[in-house]
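User: For a benchmark we're assembling, each entry needs the component sequences followed by a predicted structure for the full assembly. Here are entry 17's components. Please fill in the structure.
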Amino acid sequence: MQSAGAWVYTRLSRKMKILTGIGLKLRTGCLFAALAASLSAQSSPHKEIVKLVEQNSPTYIQASKTIWEYAELGYHEEKSSTLLQRHLKEAGFGVEAGVADEPTGFIATYGKGRPVVAILGEFDALPGLSQAAAPDRSPVKAGAPGHGCGHNLLGAGAALAAVALKQYMEANHVAGTLRYYGTPAEEGGDGKVYMIRAGLFRDVDVVLHWHPASSNAVMNGGALALTSAKFLFHGVAAHAAFAPERGRSALDAVMLMGTGIEFMREHIPSNARVHYIVSNGGAAPNVVPDTAELFLYARSPSLATLDGIWARIEKIGQGAALMTETTLDIKILGSSNNIVANDALATIAQANLEEIGGYRYTAEEKHFAQALQKSLPAGSVPDSELAASVEPLRKFDPNQPSASTDVGDVSWNVPTIGFVAATFVPGVVAHTWQAAACAGTSIGQKGMLVAAKTLAVTAADLFASPQLVRDAKQDFLRQTAGTTYKSEIPAGQKPPIDYGKM
Amino acid sequence: MQSAGAWVYTRLSRKMKILTGIGLKLRTGCLFAALAASLSAQSSPHKEIVKLVEQNSPTYIQASKTIWEYAELGYHEEKSSTLLQRHLKEAGFGVEAGVADEPTGFIATYGKGRPVVAILGEFDALPGLSQAAAPDRSPVKAGAPGHGCGHNLLGAGAALAAVALKQYMEANHVAGTLRYYGTPAEEGGDGKVYMIRAGLFRDVDVVLHWHPASSNAVMNGGALALTSAKFLFHGVAAHAAFAPERGRSALDAVMLMGTGIEFMREHIPSNARVHYIVSNGGAAPNVVPDTAELFLYARSPSLATLDGIWARIEKIGQGAALMTETTLDIKILGSSNNIVANDALATIAQANLEEIGGYRYTAEEKHFAQALQKSLPAGSVPDSELAASVEPLRKFDPNQPSASTDVGDVSWNVPTIGFVAATFVPGVVAHTWQAAACAGTSIGQKGMLVAAKTLAVTAADLFASPQLVRDAKQDFLRQTAGTTYKSEIPAGQKPPIDYGKM
Amino acid sequence: MQSAGAWVYTRLSRKMKILTGIGLKLRTGCLFAALAASLSAQSSPHKEIVKLVEQNSPTYIQASKTIWEYAELGYHEEKSSTLLQRHLKEAGFGVEAGVADEPTGFIATYGKGRPVVAILGEFDALPGLSQAAAPDRSPVKAGAPGHGCGHNLLGAGAALAAVALKQYMEANHVAGTLRYYGTPAEEGGDGKVYMIRAGLFRDVDVVLHWHPASSNAVMNGGALALTSAKFLFHGVAAHAAFAPERGRSALDAVMLMGTGIEFMREHIPSNARVHYIVSNGGAAPNVVPDTAELFLYARSPSLATLDGIWARIEKIGQGAALMTETTLDIKILGSSNNIVANDALATIAQANLEEIGGYRYTAEEKHFAQALQKSLPAGSVPDSELAASVEPLRKFDPNQPSASTDVGDVSWNVPTIGFVAATFVPGVVAHTWQAAACAGTSIGQKGMLVAAKTLAVTAADLFASPQLVRDAKQDFLRQTAGTTYKSEIPAGQKPPIDYGKM
Amino acid sequence: MQSAGAWVYTRLSRKMKILTGIGLKLRTGCLFAALAASLSAQSSPHKEIVKLVEQNSPTYIQASKTIWEYAELGYHEEKSSTLLQRHLKEAGFGVEAGVADEPTGFIATYGKGRPVVAILGEFDALPGLSQAAAPDRSPVKAGAPGHGCGHNLLGAGAALAAVALKQYMEANHVAGTLRYYGTPAEEGGDGKVYMIRAGLFRDVDVVLHWHPASSNAVMNGGALALTSAKFLFHGVAAHAAFAPERGRSALDAVMLMGTGIEFMREHIPSNARVHYIVSNGGAAPNVVPDTAELFLYARSPSLATLDGIWARIEKIGQGAALMTETTLDIKILGSSNNIVANDALATIAQANLEEIGGYRYTAEEKHFAQALQKSLPAGSVPDSELAASVEPLRKFDPNQPSASTDVGDVSWNVPTIGFVAATFVPGVVAHTWQAAACAGTSIGQKGMLVAAKTLAVTAADLFASPQLVRDAKQDFLRQTAGTTYKSEIPAGQKPPIDYGKM
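Assistant: Structure for entry 17:
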């Protein structure tokens, strides 16, 4: 049986050839998406799946709220992971837990044979962003973690998609393997990289993922390659009042390294990013610190450029050690790649996202949004209708703001497509208390439903169309031609389970 | 009954007048001390007291070792304080615990009436200096506190002096009140300042104290006035990769404040000291830190000069806030004064310290010392005979290395004298793992006995000579004439019980 | 008589309506330009003008070389300005010199009545870039100025265009006023801003300009708004060894301001630019500097954003003063606006630039180019065919590299269009010795001829088509609607004739 | 013939033995000086010499004023040197000019045979300290040099002493060689070091010198050893707006090196000094600077300690280069040693300075002093009677404020003694405009007369007493035992004639 989704895809492919034949360089996708939307609106498999998502949604809305309350940091998402595993098991998935030396990592599987379609789930929180579902800064527990990146929605929404699709596949005898990857520690722990190294993605044909945001849009490539490390300096302790001249301050080295990084900013490409904290700034003011540490991330749209910048960052650390007569240990902690685009998958994902469409705020939600927006910086002019619409498909612009994800590494190994859904009030960016607040409200939950539906119908299209899977594979080969996947994480390194405390 | 000590004092006073009458400006004390030593060597009350100290010493050597093992941080010296209280109670002192809102503060009292002579005890450890009694860096528990300032010896030695003296007073029906002040959190918590504010020193006539060091010497004045504060900056969080331009980094403010402090160093008097740690350097590299904190100490031989420097430090903090569009909260955490000299008390203390004399290392101790000295910075040439001798009495040189102590505040309220005893291997300075190692060895314990004896006989001299107490009072009035005691700790502030974690 | 250029324009306008009528958002211009090029290739007025440019070219090639040798800094281009004035006078222009309080500013005029079309000329050099016309770093005089921005070509090429066009107008009785603006000190002196303030652009209908570069392309808008200032700190001098604590170092303030700027970089939009030198870093190491100065430029694609950044820069300066107990004088030295786009003028300029076309390197020029490119940073991959082609018309991308020019201010007052011509070897950027080298070679001169021809035929089109002038005006009004021209240069400020030394 | 001075010296030596025999550690000198003063007050050779100084004084007061007006920088004191040479020639000295490759260096000689006694003269000014003889900041020419160290008085006063003494020697047939060393560029040019290397001090027995200050006091040793260098960084230029990522900023390296120096301050001995200027901070803000330079002095009371600090300074420079991908050239520019004490010479110099005594201000001078003192920093409490008295002889305290001088190098080669005389209003320190102002007034001139008289009578004592010369030699050998003279100035380096501009 051929699904309507696949049918749309076929027609789109043909149309594309016609249009490109006339030699115009259009922003592909804008047009197609519109066509696709109109064509697939009546598609009955999609309808059935959407209905299943809606039927299952109360459980997963509740799960998203519970995980939001758990707010567990990367590699320590014990309760969150257990909750999702339980729901998936109850829904009939086989679950393998503790994969790839990651206690909270797991894979839930339904079905068998080709194709193997994987949906990614994340559920880790961020330190310091504890926040009530309120429009003003109200930590639930001051200093505690919070879901400032909405991974409570991400993990629950992806599970909802998997469960609904499984019910559809079962009911309709759809062949193939559906997997849900419970991937820990996206926020700096690179859980997926260790899963790749453990071979867990080796047999996967296509990977689907989504992420909370303030709009609905397909992400065809993008994200910034990232390397992170801790720069630990060792000096000589001394009584800071009595004999400071005997001390060699590791904190001085940290301060000078940080300052050196700031001076480098002007001389790296504008779209690169370097940011750091002082993860150990000395034990007591009256002792010249003999250890101090700077924890740094560097990012760039291109891993090659990032490698060049990284070499300079290490020089800055070494220069700081030289300046202060201290020594330096560099521990690479994490690294993730940029996301490889996949035009074949992007086209179908765009069609489906447009088919599903956005949603409108209730009066109460509008009220919440307006109150929350008062806390945003002057000059950010949020578009209040963002949640209701779907962005046109765009090429990734390396100069546009972006972030990083270990989904990047997955995309260098398997044809991958993802999208964002409008879970945050317009104007809100990830990694803020405002985002954490939204992730606990009905706004976040509505966005999660958009995501779950889009994931489920897109996966269904993939199960229905071998050609689509082949096209995805072919585009993957084209986009990665001449390059080899690599990760800056040292070979043999185990998942840094306690990276948040290191 | 008039003690031999007082007799010596009287003769010294007379001699001084004769000598000063001939109009020469001698370094007073050098000569006197030598005379005093020869004169008092046979003094029988001193002999009796010294014997009592030695009899009681096993208990307090053990106590010093136990407290060294406890290694409890300021205001949390529960076990250490309890141990000393128990010993003092068992020796017949009345104990009032939890004084001045300080859970580990206490006063042990014996006798009644005038004069009131107080001996100070301290027992808090330093963070990060856990160390075995070994000549190489061997933490008992990595990162844990350790007695790098030897307060285990200080508190136990002072208690030993009190107990021995009490036995002597009892046996000889000496009138007057002897007190032991269990003063918590000398290392930055200013336990004594809150005791002063609670009026606990109001009726004291003379205060005696000692401190571990690598030589035997009377401290007639000195120490650096100190003010400490936490500079907490508040900025605006933002995703550090996606929208760093929306963030206002509190860590940037900390880095710039630190850098500003470094630039100020050249332009303050050379004998001032400013040192800091980064007590909060941000939560996660991928979030622009909205809070960050610098914890700073500033010191100067003169509180007036310190106040001028402090005003500039606050300006530097404000400048850093202005530069980064952040806001700044300054929380004064601690403050202590320099020590007021007392020539009358110094003369008698010097005589007594010389009478007691130093001690010699055993072959084993020499071996330990030599091994330990290998870890000292090149260029420090330790004098191996330091422990055996007593330094001549010197005027405090404000350009010589010094530290700070809340004994300073006591000395602005009560005639006070102190001395150091050779508990550390020569070349070792306080607040190092080397000092912590020594504080757990027989070298430290031998120095502690020198201290206990000197404290006890000096207190005995005070009980024996009302004139000496009057002279001490008169010199106190002369040295503090025209000034008023003040503390930079805000009025009404409670002891910062958790200052180590703030 | 209606020129072919105007005719093309008319047809383009009609076509544009048709195309836009079908509702597609095309990158306008690409298509039009192609049509225009094919249509106007035979245009005989253009042919006549191009011929006149070529006939006059030897004189102006020689002038470009002479000015390249003069290499005079902004506001001190006495010999360069005089040379161009002489040529223009000899060609029949009336010349008014010393306009707008600028000794080297002048206006050369031919003809009368409307429209008034102005061509801009510049002729100032850059400090420190003295360089022979050689492919390796060979200063003619070490440390002396050089034409690293190719303004020797700019000024001579614009004059060549004016002279040729004047001959054509005279021969063909073309009505209207043609002006050449000799505008000094583009490099930081903002000569044009003072000309605007003096009312010298008030009656101008259209302004044309060009700039040396490594490709041939119309610039429809763009450039970065810029504000520059000197931050002069005043402290207290002191002997740096004897009494540094008495000093308050103005250099410390400069160092801290610079460092503060570096810390700000992360928190401004990526496409903004801030750069500075230490223009006064103290007189002698043994004296604490009582004056020191930082000379800073800030830029942004948007003047509004720039103003926000500028306010923060001033705060950083004030913060540095606060930190160091110094005082700060801020002297705004220059300011220029971004360039307002003009779609009507861009369309015709693109058509004409494509009509004129690029040029090819001789074997010798290729040899020079390859030798020069060896000095370029690894990773810059220059396209060797750039000079031969013309870039398609593009919208200004605010995230692409850009620079600043006081042409921006002109464009906020008069409809303005400009383009670049390929005078530099591909890969070479302005403000380098490589650019200075090219500006003295036949490569630079060939690019200058492309520019002179394009300027002349475009101006001729404007004289021929009142509609084109009206459309330019209308587009200007549309693009500037709701905004008001302003300059950050303080009202009443005179041209900073000695800004290079200030 | 034996002078009274020598007679005093003999008696002092005998007395010293007696006093030291009683075993008291007195501050030697205080007492001796007092005795010496009373004993030598009637000495008739001293009287005669003092009279000759006074007779010759008008010429040299005028010379001091003329040199003050010349205010020539180091190695460029052409007019100042010529003027002094002319006066010395006219007084009967033989003059050798241009010695040791120093155009303004010279030696003026009278007499022959042993002993050879040399008086040092300096005459160089300081940049930026141009100042009228007025009590408020009034540059004669803004930015021009000024005599902020009073070397106009130093050179003229020393010449006055030489001329008067020559007249006395001639009249009294005193044997021996008297030399005046015209030593250029004391302010950073180390003129005397090159003279030493040229062997010009090889046959000298004793060197006498003086320096302007705000009190009258013998300097027995002291001064800080000093090394200075220029740290020149080379980077890669780039357009700072268009392609800053291509640049490697030499200014960044300078900024980071300076910041690194500031961070080192806490961790060197408090009595060390490091100070710097940015001698090249970039050419233009819109070009990433490819060269930038930091000019630094480091000082310490001990050359060995200084060498350790210097190694760290070089590491800081290298660290800054590493951090910024620039390269570093270090050019040692100057170096001078601390001054070796000479107790034998100090005793006689103290006796003579006390014999000559200070002077009192006129009402007008008091008025000037009070007006000038208003410009001094709050907290400096000048003693208005300083000029009238003579300080007691003190041991050099390495923690007291000090400066550096190439007299230090002389003192490592020849027995040397010097003193300061009260030429500056109390509270004024050298290297300020206030010092430059005083150096042009009668206050400065009166101090100069104190100096000239003391120099002349002390030299006369040396000519009169071979024993004194022998004792000086013996003390020199004692003080320098076990050490070797060295200079950090690279071997073979020529005097850096243009060091002020380098």
